[in-house]
Amino acid sequence: MLLFYGKLLYHFLYQYQHETENRRQENIPGRGGASFFMIGLIGGSGLHEIPGFKVNERRAVETPYGLPSDEFMIGELSGRTVAFLPRHSYNIPPHKVNYRANIRGFKELGAERVIAVSAVGGINNSLRPGDIVLLNQLIDFTKSRVNTFYDGDDVVHVDFTEPYCPELRESFIRASESGGIKLLNAGTYICVEGPRLETASEIGFFSSMSADVVGMTGMPEAVLARESELCYVALSVVTNLAAGISPVKLTAKEVVETMNRSTEVVKTLLSGAIGLVPQRRDCPCGEALKDAGM
Ligand SMILES: [Zn+2]
Protein backbone atom coordinates (compact mmCIF):
# COMPACT_ATOMS: atom_id res chain seq x y z
CA MET A 1 0.00 0.00 0.00
CA LEU A 2 2.80 2.38 0.92
CA LEU A 3 4.48 1.60 -2.36
CA PHE A 4 1.24 2.41 -4.19
CA TYR A 5 0.94 5.82 -2.52
CA GLY A 6 4.62 6.42 -3.13
CA LYS A 7 4.19 5.76 -6.84
CA LEU A 8 1.07 7.94 -6.95
CA LEU A 9 2.94 10.80 -5.31
CA TYR A 10 5.87 10.35 -7.70
CA HIS A 11 3.48 10.39 -10.66
CA PHE A 12 1.79 13.56 -9.38
CA LEU A 13 5.10 15.34 -8.77
CA TYR A 14 6.41 14.27 -12.19
CA GLN A 15 3.31 15.65 -13.92
CA TYR A 16 3.49 18.87 -11.91
CA GLN A 17 7.14 19.37 -12.73
CA HIS A 18 6.55 18.88 -16.45
CA GLU A 19 3.53 21.17 -16.55
CA THR A 20 5.48 23.88 -14.70
CA GLU A 21 8.36 23.36 -17.11
CA ASN A 22 6.04 23.67 -20.12
CA ARG A 23 4.48 26.86 -18.78
CA ARG A 24 7.91 28.37 -18.18
CA GLN A 25 9.18 27.40 -21.65
CA GLU A 26 6.17 29.09 -23.27
CA ASN A 27 7.36 32.40 -21.85
CA ILE A 28 10.76 32.22 -23.52
CA PRO A 29 11.18 34.25 -26.70
CA GLY A 30 11.28 32.05 -29.79
CA ARG A 31 9.81 29.15 -27.84
CA GLY A 32 6.71 27.66 -29.26
CA GLY A 33 7.15 25.93 -32.66
CA ALA A 34 8.61 22.50 -32.95
CA SER A 35 11.72 24.02 -34.43
CA PHE A 36 12.72 25.82 -31.22
CA PHE A 37 15.96 24.92 -29.62
CA MET A 38 18.24 27.09 -27.60
CA ILE A 39 22.01 27.07 -27.50
CA GLY A 40 23.77 28.42 -24.43
CA LEU A 41 26.97 30.39 -24.81
CA ILE A 42 29.38 31.26 -22.00
CA GLY A 43 31.88 34.01 -22.76
CA GLY A 44 35.20 34.21 -20.97
CA SER A 45 37.76 36.95 -20.37
CA GLY A 46 37.68 39.58 -23.09
CA LEU A 47 34.58 38.09 -24.71
CA HIS A 48 31.90 40.03 -22.91
CA GLU A 49 29.68 40.40 -25.92
CA ILE A 50 29.38 38.85 -29.37
CA PRO A 51 29.38 41.27 -32.32
CA GLY A 52 26.51 40.42 -34.69
CA PHE A 53 24.53 38.84 -31.89
CA LYS A 54 21.11 40.46 -31.85
CA VAL A 55 19.81 40.55 -28.28
CA ASN A 56 16.03 40.43 -27.95
CA GLU A 57 15.80 40.15 -24.22
CA ARG A 58 17.82 40.13 -21.02
CA ARG A 59 16.55 37.61 -18.53
CA ALA A 60 17.49 37.22 -14.87
CA VAL A 61 17.23 33.63 -13.66
CA GLU A 62 17.15 32.62 -10.01
CA THR A 63 18.31 29.12 -9.21
CA PRO A 64 18.36 26.99 -6.05
CA TYR A 65 22.14 27.61 -6.07
CA GLY A 66 21.93 31.38 -6.19
CA LEU A 67 22.35 33.85 -9.00
CA PRO A 68 24.28 33.20 -12.23
CA SER A 69 27.16 35.54 -13.21
CA ASP A 70 24.73 37.94 -14.89
CA GLU A 71 21.42 38.16 -16.69
CA PHE A 72 21.18 35.92 -19.74
CA MET A 73 21.13 37.80 -23.04
CA ILE A 74 18.71 35.94 -25.28
CA GLY A 75 18.75 36.63 -28.98
CA GLU A 76 19.59 35.42 -32.45
CA LEU A 77 22.85 34.26 -33.94
CA SER A 78 23.05 32.37 -37.25
CA GLY A 79 19.28 32.00 -37.21
CA ARG A 80 19.35 30.17 -33.88
CA THR A 81 18.14 31.20 -30.46
CA VAL A 82 21.18 31.77 -28.29
CA ALA A 83 21.37 32.56 -24.57
CA PHE A 84 24.63 34.35 -23.82
CA LEU A 85 26.12 34.58 -20.35
CA PRO A 86 29.35 36.45 -19.62
CA ARG A 87 31.15 34.28 -17.08
CA HIS A 88 33.05 37.12 -15.45
CA SER A 89 30.42 39.85 -15.26
CA TYR A 90 31.06 42.33 -12.48
CA ASN A 91 34.71 41.16 -12.52
CA ILE A 92 33.93 37.85 -10.80
CA PRO A 93 37.27 36.00 -10.50
CA PRO A 94 37.44 32.36 -11.70
CA HIS A 95 37.46 30.85 -8.20
CA LYS A 96 34.33 32.80 -7.24
CA VAL A 97 32.16 32.10 -10.28
CA ASN A 98 28.91 30.41 -9.23
CA TYR A 99 29.29 27.55 -11.71
CA ARG A 100 26.26 25.67 -10.40
CA ALA A 101 23.97 28.69 -10.79
CA ASN A 102 25.30 29.35 -14.31
CA ILE A 103 24.72 25.81 -15.57
CA ARG A 104 21.41 25.48 -13.77
CA GLY A 105 20.36 28.79 -15.36
CA PHE A 106 20.81 27.38 -18.86
CA LYS A 107 18.84 24.32 -17.85
CA GLU A 108 16.02 26.53 -16.51
CA LEU A 109 15.90 28.42 -19.81
CA GLY A 110 15.49 25.16 -21.70
CA ALA A 111 18.90 25.06 -23.41
CA GLU A 112 20.17 21.58 -24.25
CA ARG A 113 23.62 22.63 -25.40
CA VAL A 114 26.26 24.91 -23.94
CA ILE A 115 29.28 26.30 -25.75
CA ALA A 116 31.99 27.70 -23.51
CA VAL A 117 34.76 30.07 -24.54
CA SER A 118 37.73 30.75 -22.29
CA ALA A 119 41.17 32.32 -22.28
CA VAL A 120 44.05 29.94 -21.63
CA GLY A 121 47.80 29.84 -21.34
CA GLY A 122 49.64 27.71 -23.88
CA ILE A 123 51.73 24.84 -22.48
CA ASN A 124 52.27 22.88 -25.69
CA ASN A 125 55.33 24.34 -27.43
CA SER A 126 53.60 24.49 -30.80
CA LEU A 127 50.90 26.87 -29.53
CA ARG A 128 51.09 30.63 -30.07
CA PRO A 129 48.97 33.51 -28.70
CA GLY A 130 45.82 33.79 -30.77
CA ASP A 131 45.57 30.04 -31.49
CA ILE A 132 42.17 28.49 -30.89
CA VAL A 133 41.91 24.98 -29.43
CA LEU A 134 38.79 22.80 -29.49
CA LEU A 135 39.30 20.76 -26.34
CA ASN A 136 38.83 17.02 -26.18
CA GLN A 137 40.22 16.18 -22.72
CA LEU A 138 40.69 17.82 -19.34
CA ILE A 139 42.55 17.40 -16.07
CA ASP A 140 41.09 18.91 -12.90
CA PHE A 141 43.48 20.59 -10.47
CA THR A 142 40.94 22.83 -8.74
CA LYS A 143 40.88 22.69 -4.96
CA SER A 144 38.03 24.52 -3.31
CA ARG A 145 35.01 24.54 -5.62
CA VAL A 146 31.68 22.78 -5.29
CA ASN A 147 32.03 20.35 -8.16
CA THR A 148 28.71 18.52 -8.20
CA PHE A 149 24.94 19.00 -7.99
CA TYR A 150 24.82 15.75 -6.02
CA ASP A 151 26.28 16.57 -2.64
CA GLY A 152 23.19 15.49 -0.70
CA ASP A 153 21.65 12.04 -0.23
CA ASP A 154 21.71 11.10 -3.91
CA VAL A 155 24.99 9.51 -4.93
CA VAL A 156 25.71 9.97 -8.63
CA HIS A 157 28.88 9.12 -10.57
CA VAL A 158 28.51 10.38 -14.14
CA ASP A 159 30.70 8.93 -16.86
CA PHE A 160 33.29 11.55 -17.82
CA THR A 161 35.58 9.52 -20.08
CA GLU A 162 34.92 12.02 -22.86
CA PRO A 163 34.18 15.34 -21.10
CA TYR A 164 33.05 17.22 -24.22
CA CYS A 165 30.07 16.56 -26.50
CA PRO A 166 31.22 14.77 -29.69
CA GLU A 167 28.38 16.25 -31.73
CA LEU A 168 29.12 19.87 -30.78
CA ARG A 169 32.82 19.26 -31.39
CA GLU A 170 31.95 18.03 -34.87
CA SER A 171 29.98 21.23 -35.58
CA PHE A 172 33.07 23.31 -34.75
CA ILE A 173 35.40 21.14 -36.83
CA ARG A 174 33.09 21.44 -39.83
CA ALA A 175 32.70 25.21 -39.33
CA SER A 176 36.48 25.70 -39.20
CA GLU A 177 36.98 23.63 -42.36
CA SER A 178 34.27 25.36 -44.37
CA GLY A 179 35.30 28.82 -43.12
CA GLY A 180 39.04 28.27 -43.61
CA ILE A 181 39.64 29.06 -39.93
CA LYS A 182 42.69 27.64 -38.20
CA LEU A 183 41.47 25.47 -35.34
CA LEU A 184 43.37 22.86 -33.38
CA ASN A 185 40.70 20.24 -33.05
CA ALA A 186 42.08 18.41 -30.01
CA GLY A 187 43.78 19.47 -26.83
CA THR A 188 43.98 18.69 -23.13
CA TYR A 189 43.00 21.46 -20.73
CA ILE A 190 44.27 21.56 -17.19
CA CYS A 191 42.14 23.56 -14.79
CA VAL A 192 43.88 25.24 -11.86
CA GLU A 193 42.35 27.03 -8.91
CA GLY A 194 43.86 30.48 -9.39
CA PRO A 195 43.55 33.38 -9.18
CA ARG A 196 47.36 33.42 -9.16
CA LEU A 197 49.16 32.30 -12.29
CA GLU A 198 51.22 29.10 -12.26
CA THR A 199 54.85 28.59 -11.28
CA ALA A 200 57.37 27.43 -13.89
CA SER A 201 57.65 24.07 -12.08
CA GLU A 202 53.91 23.56 -12.15
CA ILE A 203 53.83 24.21 -15.88
CA GLY A 204 56.74 21.77 -16.34
CA PHE A 205 54.74 19.18 -14.41
CA PHE A 206 51.54 19.85 -16.40
CA SER A 207 53.55 19.54 -19.62
CA SER A 208 54.78 16.11 -18.51
CA MET A 209 51.11 15.16 -18.02
CA SER A 210 50.43 15.99 -21.69
CA ALA A 211 48.36 19.07 -20.89
CA ASP A 212 48.26 21.48 -23.83
CA VAL A 213 46.62 24.50 -22.23
CA VAL A 214 45.98 25.80 -18.72
CA GLY A 215 43.00 27.78 -17.49
CA MET A 216 40.92 28.50 -14.39
CA THR A 217 37.30 28.07 -15.43
CA GLY A 218 36.87 24.75 -17.29
CA MET A 219 35.99 22.92 -14.10
CA PRO A 220 33.57 22.32 -12.54
CA GLU A 221 31.67 23.91 -15.46
CA ALA A 222 32.13 20.86 -17.72
CA VAL A 223 31.07 18.25 -15.19
CA LEU A 224 28.09 20.26 -13.97
CA ALA A 225 26.86 20.39 -17.57
CA ARG A 226 27.28 16.61 -17.82
CA GLU A 227 25.39 16.11 -14.55
CA SER A 228 22.62 18.30 -16.03
CA GLU A 229 22.55 16.16 -19.19
CA LEU A 230 23.53 19.20 -21.25
CA CYS A 231 25.87 18.95 -24.22
CA TYR A 232 29.01 20.95 -23.48
CA VAL A 233 31.90 21.96 -25.68
CA ALA A 234 34.83 24.25 -24.91
CA LEU A 235 36.81 26.55 -27.13
CA SER A 236 40.06 27.80 -25.67
CA VAL A 237 41.77 30.91 -26.96
CA VAL A 238 45.51 30.95 -26.25
CA THR A 239 46.16 34.44 -24.92
CA ASN A 240 49.69 33.95 -23.64
CA LEU A 241 52.38 31.33 -23.24
CA ALA A 242 52.37 29.78 -19.78
CA ALA A 243 55.00 30.47 -17.09
CA GLY A 244 58.44 29.10 -17.89
CA ILE A 245 57.52 28.91 -21.58
CA SER A 246 56.95 32.62 -22.09
CA PRO A 247 60.22 34.61 -22.24
CA VAL A 248 58.53 37.58 -20.57
CA LYS A 249 56.52 38.12 -17.37
CA LEU A 250 52.81 37.38 -17.81
CA THR A 251 50.27 40.14 -17.40
CA ALA A 252 46.49 40.19 -17.25
CA LYS A 253 46.59 43.02 -19.82
CA GLU A 254 48.24 40.67 -22.34
CA VAL A 255 45.37 38.20 -21.87
CA VAL A 256 42.71 40.79 -22.63
CA GLU A 257 44.59 42.30 -25.59
CA THR A 258 45.08 38.94 -27.30
CA MET A 259 41.49 37.95 -26.57
CA ASN A 260 40.27 41.16 -28.17
CA ARG A 261 42.38 40.52 -31.28
CA SER A 262 41.02 36.96 -31.53
CA THR A 263 37.41 38.00 -30.98
CA GLU A 264 36.60 38.42 -34.67
CA VAL A 265 37.91 34.95 -35.52
CA VAL A 266 36.15 33.39 -32.54
CA LYS A 267 32.92 35.12 -33.51
CA THR A 268 33.12 33.83 -37.09
CA LEU A 269 33.77 30.33 -35.79
CA LEU A 270 30.93 30.54 -33.28
CA SER A 271 28.46 31.80 -35.89
CA GLY A 272 29.43 29.03 -38.31
CA ALA A 273 29.34 26.26 -35.71
CA ILE A 274 26.06 27.40 -34.14
CA GLY A 275 24.45 27.29 -37.58
CA LEU A 276 25.65 23.69 -38.00
CA VAL A 277 24.41 22.30 -34.67
CA PRO A 278 21.79 19.69 -35.54
CA GLN A 279 18.33 20.30 -34.17
CA ARG A 280 17.97 16.89 -32.59
CA ARG A 281 20.65 15.49 -30.38
CA ASP A 282 22.27 12.25 -31.46
CA CYS A 283 24.92 12.05 -28.73
CA PRO A 284 24.99 10.35 -25.30
CA CYS A 285 24.91 13.63 -23.27
CA GLY A 286 21.12 13.64 -22.82
CA GLU A 287 21.28 10.32 -20.94
CA ALA A 288 24.25 11.04 -18.70
CA LEU A 289 22.32 10.27 -15.53
CA LYS A 290 21.03 6.94 -16.78
CA ASP A 291 22.73 4.22 -14.71
CA ALA A 292 24.85 6.87 -12.94
CA GLY A 293 23.03 6.69 -9.60
CA MET A 294 24.01 4.34 -6.78
ZN1 LIG B 1 25.98 16.04 -26.68
- CATH-derived topology: Rossmann fold
The CATH class turns out to be Alpha Beta
Q: Ligands in the structure?
A: zinc ion
The counted number of beta strands is: 10
What's the gyration radius in Å?
19 Å
- Which shape, going by the Cα principal axes? globular
Distance between the termini: 25 Å
Q: List SSEs in N-to-C order.
A: HEEEEHEEEHEHEHEH
- How much β-strand is present in the residues? 15-25%
Query: What is the count of DSSP helices, taking H or I runs of 4+ residues?
Result: 6
Identify the CATH architecture.
3-Layer(aba) Sandwich
**Average pLDDT number:** 87
Q: Which homologous superfamily in CATH is the superfamily?
A: Nucleoside phosphorylase domain
List the domain count as a whole number.
Answer: 1
Runs in which pLDDT lies below 50 for 5 or more consecutive residues are 1-27, 29-35
Q: What's the topology here?
A:
Blueprint: H1 2-26, E1 38-43, E2 54-59, E3 72-77, E4 80-86, H2 99-109, E5 113-122, E6 132-134, E7 137-141, H3 166-179, E8 188-192, H4 200-208, E9 213-215, H5 218-227, E10 231-241, H6 252-276
Parallel strand pairs: 1-4, 1-5, 5-10, 7-8, 8-9
Antiparallel strand pairs: 2-3, 3-4, 5-9, 6-10
Helix pairs in contact: 2-5, 3-6
